[in-house]
């Protein structure tokens, strides 16, 4: 009898740097580049289309809301598709759509065209993170899932930073073309990645997959789903309101110089790179998603209060605060990971894809509340009220949420 040669156990780096993890990470980099490129080029692109200064804020909010509406619809579509057809179908389809929409954004000549293409881009952008995180959590051992999703999130944040530098070096139309080209190049890498075994096993069984009704027909599942959404709200309050409209906040504060939106975005996401790494490592150290997320939400609340209430006058101090806000936002990866871990394989992609997009889409009611309150109490206090509401809801939801750090993901949801 011939002895089989022993295979050396894989190192942590070898387990993490699998092709599915790398491709999911690079895909999210391009996804975040496009998502935040609009925040960076909002003012110059609108001015180039003939928008008057008094219309920059309302037209910018309209375009942002169109993008977020697309992400809401896309989140449902890609989430269901990811559970019915597989995670890879979403990774291919979503990047193709947002890459082509990116190229189209560089060709626009009117505000209406801009709005339509931001909506289409939103639909495409909706699928990338959820499908990527779902695939990564299913191909990696449970003890290192947090490291894998941290890599994905960190690469995504680097994409947002890259958007600032590309927009600084190139005219805004060319910045959109570059994003579209990067996405199309990434499709070549995706040809060689494989589907997760967990999903392939479930696919062979007669189990309902990607059924949205299952999320709402069971009270326990519905509450878990709502908890996931609420936990992410503070992140997009900061990104969608405080950072995106930082020039308007700087003006309301009476800063010594105008705030450049692109610089505020770049600095906040520089902070988030370190926050994503720190939260991922903290989660692994504590062996708890909940405790790590709770700490970052409380930290975020401190910096939100400083941003809106401290008597800032120097623009450099404002930019430094944007870095701290970004760092406190660094639980995005953990938030999406816990959403994926809370649900069975037959609903995992649906949840992991729809939840972050519903959080992003929550910018629509949040900006509406902000604009409504602005006419009564002013820019700063209106934002303060909205921010405290999102933080309170997130902490309540997190308190009742199940811990998922050591949870086995090889199970399905039953009717």
UniProtKB/TrEMBL annotation:
Q: Indicate where this protein is primarily found.
A: membrane
Q: Which InterPro entries match?
A: MFS (IPR011701), MFS_dom (IPR020846), MFS_trans_sf (IPR036259)
Per the record, its GO cellular-component terms are:
plasma membrane
Membrane among keywords:
yes
**Where do transmembrane segments lie in this chain?**
21-41, 61-81, 88-108, 114-135, 147-167, 173-193, 222-245, 294-312, 318-343, 355-373, 379-401
Q: How does it sit in the membrane?
A: Multi-pass membrane protein
Q: Which SUPFAM superfamilies match?
A: MFS general substrate transporter
The protein's UniProt keywords, in alphabetical order, are: Membrane, Transmembrane, Transmembrane helix
Q: Where in the cell is it found?
A: Membrane
Concerning PROSITE patterns, the annotation shows: MFS (PS50850)
GO function terms (MF aspect): carboxylic acid transmembrane transporter activity
Q: Which domain of life is it from?
A: Bacteria
Q: Which residues form the Major facilitator superfamily (MFS) profile domain?
A: 20-405
Q: What is the protein name stated in its UniProt record?
A: Major facilitator superfamily MFS_1
Source organism per UniProt: Fibrisoma limi BUZ 3
